[in-house]
């Protein structure tokens, strides 16, 4: 399958955002994934041609970063954090339950092509442990049961929202945003989840503030 | 007397639509620009130096001094790069900051870039946080339209372009020179220093790389004055910081306080260790900072005091583990993480992390013998200080500190023929009162 003209134009557009074109390579590979569903040989060739570097150099970069996939990814990439804190808080049990429920191993996709399951490293939401990511949106404070519910809803085509608000899009749509093409959905969801506000709520209750500054 | 909690960066997180420009401006946002533009760039650097702000990404290097290292007689363009690759296990402060108030960061980028005389800046945000990327993209777009970015900002004659750049999954890119490699479209492997990025960073040009929280603190310093910032915290660790409590604590979350607050104080605010359990061990600043125990509850959480206690303040990522947690399991999992994230550039880290994981895994299964603890410490000794960057050093921290404090628990795995703990008891959804 070859890339269409629009994709070629967008690859060049990404490269042009930077003082030196090669800086565009990471977002360009995100764009390739959004169009192709993975990093394909055609996508690698296209990046190489736009940047004037060899396909081997692009390949070297694509194999370094874990978000780039060589096998087709399902509509929903489900990442269960199994780094220490989430693992201890239940991430290991969630991951085991999902493997069993979906009948897949790590980094494998369900037969219907809907879910790719992977265990992921710390995703910077430890105050919401155990955490699961769906297409890189936060699913906070999960249990094995809630995680099963999420994947079942996704497979049934029901609308699912991140616990911090936004409606879950497909993996390809998410990759397009990461390539730097906004989907105009920044306003979905609240500013912060409850744990993010834990200290602030106490400060409000107690009337605690930072000292007054010189110009106030 | 300063209040126990001092919300500055977190202060607008509960505002209605806090992420929008309208909300941010309503609270005085972007006023620091006019105050900064009325100063010379050197005076802005001096103010940040005088504030005593030290890098909030873990290393604690004085921010103003870093800016002062930029050779202004170098004819090449200068660059500001924000390290938003928050990935250190346990660290979860920059992501909620950018989610709730991306404009705080953008305003900081403008003031900081003006100070170092950069006309192009980048936010390198990890790719695995879709909604945060959306909010950053929107904030930058709004800031351009409002004249806070672009040409002749606020009529000052100063120009700045800001690019949001999503990474693609690599813990090592939190290391500043590996981040630059990623931003140049290469494999994220650290560079030899010197030359330091201040002299030859992005595109071999003078570059400042700062953590999100460091840059986000700058507008408040310009607005309120260096003395205001320096008046908080301890003698050598000035100002406030976001402390992130996670794990076996009643109310995990973000607590913004002057540096020097103790874990005992923070735990009290957070409702204590989860009911019916007691503190066993904790990290002061992420998994790369040596473990501490209940005997360290009263250590002031500033750079000097945590260092004197044998650990590091790091990113103030306070991961709390109670007595249901097996320390060997915890440390093995972190070790597997370092092994996975080692970039492969240098031998001590590339080979050493694999050996560490193998030796630990054997112990965790109750195989091996007591001599394996000495083997582990010997392996750590061959990595610490010999690796190319701090990743290798960090990999040794949980191992050597856990053997120091919990040697008997390692031995219990040998006598028990495996892990003596029930992993279900440590989970957030375990029945109350479950024990190991």
Automatic annotation (TrEMBL), chain A:
- Stored Pfam families: 2Fe-2S_thioredx
EC? 1.6.5.11
- Keywords recorded for this protein, A-Z: 2Fe-2S, Iron, Iron-sulfur, Metal-binding, Oxidoreductase
Q: Name one GO molecular function term.
A: oxidoreductase activity
Q: Does the keyword Glycoprotein apply?
A: no
Gene3D superfamilies given for it? Glutaredoxin, NADH-quinone oxidoreductase subunit E
What cofactors are annotated for this protein? [2Fe-2S] cluster
Family stated for the protein in its record: Belongs to the complex I 24 kDa subunit family.
Entry protein name: NADH-quinone oxidoreductase subunit NuoE
Report which gene this protein is encoded by.
nuoE
Automatic annotation (TrEMBL), chain B:
Obligatory cofactor(s):
[4Fe-4S] cluster; FMN
User: Which NCBIfam families does UniProt cross-reference here?
Assistant: nuoF_fam, PRK13596.1
What does it catalyze? a quinone + NADH + 5 H(+)(in) = a quinol + NAD(+) + 4 H(+)(out)
A single Pfam family it belongs to is Complex1_51K
| EC number, UniProt record | 7.1.1.-
Function, in words: NDH-1 shuttles electrons from NADH, via FMN and iron-sulfur (Fe-S) centers, to quinones in the respiratory chain.
Q: What is this protein called?
A: NADH-quinone oxidoreductase subunit F
**Where is each NADH-ubiquinone oxidoreductase 51kDa subunit iron-sulphur binding domain found?**
328-373
Which GO molecular function annotations are given, in alphabetical order?
oxidoreductase activity
InterPro entries documented for this protein: ComplexI_51kDa_subunit, NADH-UbQ_OxRdtase_51kDa_CS, NADH-UbQ_OxRdtase_suF, Nuo51_FMN-bd, Nuo51_FMN-bd_sf, Nuop51_4Fe4S-bd, Nuop51_4Fe4S-bd_sf, Soluble_ligand-bd
Question: What is stated as this protein's family in its record?
Answer: Belongs to the complex I 51 kDa subunit family.
Recite the UniProt keywords alphabetically.
4Fe-4S, Flavoprotein, FMN, Iron, Iron-sulfur, Metal-binding, NAD, Oxidoreductase, Quinone, Translocase
């Amino acid at each position: 399958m070859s890339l269409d003209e629009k994709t070629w134009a967008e690859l060049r557009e990404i490269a042009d955002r930077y003082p030196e074109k090669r800086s565009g390579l990471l977002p360009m590979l995100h764009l390739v994934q959004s169009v192709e569903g993975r990093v394909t040989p055609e996508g690698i060739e296209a990046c190489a041609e736009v940047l004037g570097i060899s396909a081997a150099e692009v390949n070297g970069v694509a194999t370094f970063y874990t978000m780039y996939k060589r096998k087709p990814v399902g509509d929903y990439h489900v990442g269960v954090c199994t780094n220490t804190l989430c693992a201890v808080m239940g991430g290991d049990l969630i991951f085991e339950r999902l493997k069993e429920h979906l009948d897949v191993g790590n980094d494998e996709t369900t037969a219907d092509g809907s879910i790719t399951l992977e265990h992921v490293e710390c995703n910077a939401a430890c105050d919401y442990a155990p955490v699961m990511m769906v297409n890189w949106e936060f699913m906070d404070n999960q249990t094995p049961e809630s995680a099963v519910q999420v994947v079942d809803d996704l497979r049934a085509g029901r609308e699912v929202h991140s616990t911090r608000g936004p409606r879950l899009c497909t993996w390809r749509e998410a990759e397009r945003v990461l390539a730097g093409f906004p989907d105009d959905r920044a306003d979905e969801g609240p500013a912060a989840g409850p744990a993010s506000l834990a200290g602030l709520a106490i400060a409000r209750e107690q009337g605690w503030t930072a000292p007054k500054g010189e110009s106030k | 007397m300063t209040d126990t909690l001092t919300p500055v960066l977190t202060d607008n997180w509960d505002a209605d639509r806090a992420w929008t420009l309208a909300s941010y401006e309503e609270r005085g946002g972007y006023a620091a620009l006019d105050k900064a533009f009325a100063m010379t760039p050197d005076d802005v650097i001096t103010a940040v130096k005088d504030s005593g702000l030290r890098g909030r990404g873990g290393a604690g290097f004085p921010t103003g001094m870093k800016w002062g290292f930029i050779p202004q007689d170098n004819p090449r363009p200068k660059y500001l790069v924000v390290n938003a690759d928050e990935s250190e296990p346990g660290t979860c402060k920059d992501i909620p900051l950018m989610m709730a108030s991306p404009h705080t960061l953008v305003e900081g980028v403008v003031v900081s870039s003006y100070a170092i005389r950069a006309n192009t800046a980048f936010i390198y945000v990890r790719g695995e946080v879709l909604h945060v990327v959306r909010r950053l993209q929107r904030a930058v777009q709004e800031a351009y339209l409002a004249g806070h970015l672009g040409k002749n900002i606020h009529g000052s004659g100063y120009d700045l372009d800001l690019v949001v750049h999503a990474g693609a999954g690599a813990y090592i890119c939190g290391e500043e020179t590996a981040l630059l490699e990623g931003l140049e479209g290469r494999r994220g492997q650290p560079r030899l220093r010197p030359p330091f990025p201040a002299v030859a960073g992005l595109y071999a040009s003078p570059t400042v790389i700062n953590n999100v929280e460091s840059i986000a603190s700058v507008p408040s310093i310009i607005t309120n004055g260096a003395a205001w910032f320096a008046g908080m915290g301890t003698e050598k660790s000035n100002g406030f910081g976001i402390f992130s409590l996670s794990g076996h604590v009643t109310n995990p979350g973000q607590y913004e306080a002057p540096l020097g607050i103790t874990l005992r104080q923070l735990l009290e605010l957070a409702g204590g260790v989860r009911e019916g359990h007691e503190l066993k061990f904790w990290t002061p600043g992420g998994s790369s900072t040596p473990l501490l125990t209940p005997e360290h509850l009263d250590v002031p959480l500033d750079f000097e005091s945590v260092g004197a206690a044998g650990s590091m303040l790091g990113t103030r990522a306070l991961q709390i583990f109670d007595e249901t947690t097996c320390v060997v399991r915890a440390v093995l999992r972190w070790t597997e993480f370092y092994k996975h994230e080692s970039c492969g550039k240098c031998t001590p880290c590339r080979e050493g992390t694999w050996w560490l994981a193998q030796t630990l895994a054997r112990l965790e299964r109750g195989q091996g013998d007591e001599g394996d603890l000495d083997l582990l410490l010997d392996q750590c000794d061959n990595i610490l200080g010999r690796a190319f960057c701090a990743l290798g050093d960090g990999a040794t921290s949980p191992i050597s500190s856990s053997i120091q404090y919990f040697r008997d628990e390692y031995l219990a795995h040998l006598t028990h023929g495996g892990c003596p703990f029930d992993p279900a008891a440590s989970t957030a959804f375990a029945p109350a009162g479950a024990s190991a």
